[in-house]
Design a protein that fits this description.
The complex is a heterotrimer of chains A (320), B (313) and C (322). By secondary structure, chain A is mostly helical. Helix content of chain A is 76%, strand content 0%. Chain A is built from 13 helices and no strands. Chain C is of the alpha/beta class. Classes of the chains: A mainly alpha (320), B mainly alpha (313), C alpha/beta (322). At the A-B interface, helix 1, helix 6, helix 7, helix 8 and helix 9 of A face helix 5, helix 6, helix 9, helix 10 and helix 11 of B.
Chain lengths: 320, 313, 322
């Protein structure tokens, strides 16, 4: 298989990075001052048995080094401790939160990629015209807006028309599938639109840049020389090459998407990972905070790897 | 690089500060950006002198509506919004610059070391950079603020620690290219020490790019601070623009219909970020000119009437 | 008397400059090309030879404007801009660029790019196109099986041959070769030149060879046009230019090329640099660097016929004649 060693190298790097992230996570939370943070067993309102069990599981009476090893082992089993807030296993809470976040983030990112690519290509194609200036200005404008502020603005604008909080309407009793679906769709609109608008600006600029770069390549001139029509050249030759950076682009913006998700979910009270982080901070729910942070970091590493491999798959030039 | 149009007109490669400033003046986006920033910076710096009302003086009811006396209305404490914005910009800009300074110091150093020495040093430093790159900023900032308490100092340090990677990469690339230049090699051949070469030859070449990168980093730093404040992790004793937004959000400004408590502060942040992006982006473009001519666009080459000054038979 | 295959008359090209102003890259260039003839377009970097070659096919960027006539078998194809010239691309005039990495699209196979040309102009489709592609590759010395390769999988020389094969796909009448050997090493250069020579002879192609490398012109071309500062300095049969140059620039240009047979001869370089083309030039553009300039050179020299199919733009030729 072509470039098997490239795949292996990138995957190995990802694994090492995950390891580093895990260690960082441990260091942050267990080496912090005071035991409020470090003591996983201090679950409020917990029974003594639970406290004891946690103490044993995570070896909280042992040395830091030993705790680290135990931490790793527990991690391998998916045990992240118990949430201070609802006394559920952190991993369960996270799973639920993740399932809530994904559709919203995916929708927003998809929107941003599609609109961003469209406007980026148009801006490059209509170089030097007012269309380009308008497109770029608009992109820069949205790119500069703080995520949460944009969310608040959308709430102000759409307050009457679309739901502005939560994921579902709690007052719907036993809704049919279709009603439930429509309700979800209505609730997901503003949050994912916010994310989409914030991201699309950056994407437009990157696609435009990549497209301009591509349109300056020699093979575009060759294609022109062959007698191809301009739009055919863009479609068949330029687009494919200019889209290679899209994979990288998405990876680069992942950290941003994560940050955006936290802010958006806070503004719209969306019960996802971001909101979980916010709530955990508010409630001093350190096990949750630790678990969420780890999850977020690992997912960024994971999607970076996916982007790397995708780029590799799309560009036949990379053989190393 | 296009190998075909050798004769295509190219923008001169600008490596001197003066030239960069000249380029800025000819460039509309950069001009707009700098104007925006200068106006805002002016208001922020001179806020104590030119703010229309006191920062803690209640001049009307909670969420008072905009009027001639108070063009942007009043906030949840009856304080004039324009005053609040000026003082808020002051704090936000201070945080932004401080954090950027930290990141510039770290990133610049790492970049210079990695680019100049190359080899093992380079590899190790770049590995470390790669690991730092994957850590999502806002979550880390949240964690640090949650564990070690929200204070201006912590925020500045954390933001700085997260943003240096971008600077490091850019500087490293530039240093690498400068290192290969003839006069640097000559200096080495003459026995000049590393420090001397770095200070006298490398840094002047790298400085403009560093400045461009700094401007862009300031934008990110201000955004990060705004985000942190919104999540309740900002420094409670200082009122940054982010805090203004958070206050309004907490006190249900939206349900009260007091849009003026939320829209202006965020718009101001957006303007600052926009200004930085325009200026920093133009500087970067000026320093790394695209030597290529786009072969294709919706427009085509134009025709003119025959000249007739034909010197051919 | 038949119409020449290609006639360029009073060609001007301007490029818009960032920050205002324009660069007058080509300033009234003209020459003719007959069927099967080989013309060398020579000059220093920046003299406008590449731009002239591109203008023949209308391959100018959006920032350019052009004036003049480009007559293909008597028909002015430049008159309507992009729309009149596009139908002639590849079927009448084809071009091969410098053999650098990117003249072929790196993410598509070599074969697919040749097939694209064949299908676009209706020369062949489907299986017939694939067969024809194989034949074309073989004719330039590339095994037909390589059609499925990507450009970066071929060596520089092979890529250049593939580009030549692609250029011949639609049986053009004129082949423009823009610095075809500059990016290649010496051994490969010779092979490519031989290939061009053989192909042009076999298919009766007219050739416009754009280069700054004079020995190449001497080897391949019948006539040569020497350009300086966007204009024609001198034009004529290659032998005549070499042995009896009339323009000081031509003389210095040929003298600047080190001659392996004359190892004791001095290597002459031309001091100074070509003039800027973003402002009007006073008098003869070569004057500042010319070793024979005199008072009349303050006025612009017109291109004059010197007989025997030669022309030159130099006041010295007037003096010599009278």
């Amino acid at each position: 298989m072509r470039g098997a060693d490239y795949v292996i190298k990138r995957t190995a790097f990802a694994v090492v990075t995950v390891f580093v992230a895990v260690t960082l996570n441990f260091a942050l939370f267990r080496l912090a001052p005071g035991s409020a943070v470090t003591d996983l067993s201090r679950v409020p309102h917990a029974t003594p048995e639970l406290r004891q069990a946690l103490k044993k599981q995570f070896g909280l009476d042992k040395s830091r080094g030993a705790q680290y090893v135990i931490y790793l082992r527990q991690l391998a089993h998916g045990n992240l401790g118990v949430s201070f807030a609802n006394e559920q296993p952190v991993s369960t809470n996270l799973r639920v939160a993740l399932i809530n976040t994904l559709p919203m983030v995916l929708l927003g990112t998809l929107f941003a990629i599609i609109i961003g690519t469209l406007t980026g290509v148009i801006a490059a194609w209509r170089r030097g015209t007012p269309t380009e200036a308008l497109t770029v200005t608009s992109a820069l404008g949205f790119y500069s807006m703080p995520t949460h502020w944009l969310g608040l603005m959308l709430i102000i604008i759409f307050a009457g028309t679309l739901p502005t909080g939560g994921m579902t309407n709690e007052f719907l009793i036993n809704p049919s599938f279709w009603t439930h679906f429509r309700d979800l769709a209505a609730h997901i609109t503003l949050p994912s639109l916010t994310l989409g608008l914030v991201l699309y600006g950056e994407y437009t600029l990157i696609v435009r840049s990549a497209m301009l770069e591509t349109l300056g390549e020699d093979y575009i001139l060759t294609a022109r020389a062959k007698g191809l029509k301009p739009w055919t050249i863009v479609r068949r030759h330029a687009l494919r090459n200019a889209m290679l950076p899209v994979a990288t682009l998405v990876a680069l913006s992942l950290g941003y998407i994560v940050a955006g998700a936290i802010l958006i979910e806070t503004v719209f009270s969306w019960p996802g990972i971001g909101r979980a982080v916010y709530d955990a901070v508010l409630q001093r729910d350190y096990p949750m905070l630790q678990g969420a942070f780890l999850l977020l970091t690992i997912s960024v590493v994971f999607f970076n790897l996916v982007a790397d491999l995708l780029y590799f798959k799309l560009d036949p030039r990379i053989t190393e | 690089m296009s190998s075909v149009l050798i004769e295509a007109p190219t923008a001169p490669v600008l490596t001197r500060r003066g030239a960069v400033l000249r380029m800025l003046r000819r460039n509309p986006p950069a001009l707009i950006g700098s104007t925006i920033l200068l106006v805002i910076a002016f208001c922020a710096v001179f806020a104590p002198l030119i703010a229309p009302y006191g920062l803690h003086t209640q001049v009307g009811p909670v969420f008072g509506r905009p009027s001639w006396k108070h063009p942007l209305g009043l906030d949840d404490g009856g304080i004039d919004m324009v005053t609040l914005l000026m003082w808020g910009a002051r704090v936000s800009l201070i945080v932004g610059f401080a954090a950027t300074f930290v990141s510039m110091a770290i990133g610049g150093t790492v970049g210079v070391l990695a680019g100049y020495f190359g080899g093992k040093v380079d590899t190790i430093l770049m590995r470390i950079t790669d690991y730092f790159l994957v850590i999502p900023d806002v979550p880390l900032m949240i964690v640090v603020a949650a564990i070690w308490g929200p204070s201006l100092f912590h925020i500045v340090i954390v933001i700085g620690i997260l943003l240096w990677t971008g600077t490091a990469r850019v500087i490293r690339a530039q240093v690498k290219s400068v290192r290969e230049r003839v006069y640097v090699k000559r200096a080495r051949a003459l026995g000049a020490g590393h420090l001397r070469i770095v200070v006298r030859h490398v840094l002047p070449q790298v400085a403009p790019l560093l400045i461009a990168n700094t401007v862009l980093t300031v934008a990110v730093a201000i955004f990060d601070e705004t985000a942190l404040s919104f999540l309740g992790l900002g420094d409670p004793s200082r009122t940054s623009l982010g805090k203004v937004i958070e206050n309004a959000f907490e006190r249900a400004a939206i349900s009260s219909g007091a849009w003026w408590a939320i829209v202006p502060p965020g718009a101001l942040v957006a303007l600052i970020i926009l200004g930085c992006s325009l200026v920093g982006g133009s500087m970067e473009d000026a320093l790394n000119p695209r030597l290529r001519v786009a072969h294709l666009s919706a427009r085509t080459f134009r025709l003119r009437p025959l000249v007739g000054r034909e010197n051919a038979l | 008397m038949s119409v020449p295959l290609l006639q360029v008359e009073d060609l001007h090209v301007w490029f818009d400059l960032q920050g205002g102003g324009e660069l007058h890259a080509v300033q009234g260039v003209g020459f003719t090309l007959e069927r099967g003839e080989r013309l060398g377009l020579v000059g220093e970097s920046g003299c406008g030879k590449t731009t002239t070659a591109l203008a023949i096919m209308g391959l100018l960027p959006p920032s350019a404007s052009a004036a003049g006539r480009v007559l293909l078998e008597g028909v002015d194809v430049l008159a309507g801009g992009e729309s009149t010239i596009r139908p002639h691309r590849w079927v009448d005039v084809a071009i091969v660029f410098q053999g650098a990495m990117n003249a072929l699209n790196p993410v598509r196979t070599v074969g697919s790019q040749i097939i694209e040309a064949l299908e676009l102009h209706g020369v062949a489709r489907g299986a017939a196109a694939r067969r024809r592609t194989g034949e074309l590759l073989e004719s330039v010395g590339i095994p037909a099986a390589r059609a499925g390769r990507f450009p970066h999988e071929l060596s520089g020389g092979m890529r250049q041959r593939a580009a030549i094969a692609m250029a011949l796909a639609c049986n053009p009448k004129v082949l423009i070769a823009d610095e075809p050997t500059t990016a290649l090493d010496v051994m490969v250069q010779a092979q490519i030149l031989e290939l061009l020579d053989a192909l042009c002879r076999e298919f009766g192609l007219a050739l416009v060879l754009v280069t700054h490398d004079l020995p190449v012109v001497a080897q391949l071309c019948d006539r040569s046009v020497v350009m300086y500062a966007g204009r024609v300095a001198e034009q004529g049969p290659v032998d005549a230019l070499y042995h009896d140059p009339r323009h000081p620039y031509t003389r210095l240009l040929f003298a600047a090329t080190p001659d392996l047979d004359d190892l004791d001869g001095r290597v002459v370089s031309i001091p100074g640099a070509p003039p800027r083309l973003d402002r009007p030039i006073d008098g003869c553009p070569f004057r500042p660097r010319c070793d024979r300039a005199f008072d009349r050179c303050a006025a612009e020299p017109m291109l004059r016929s010197l007989g025997d199919g030669r022309t030159a733009a130099c006041h010295l030729t007037e003096v010599a004649v009278t």
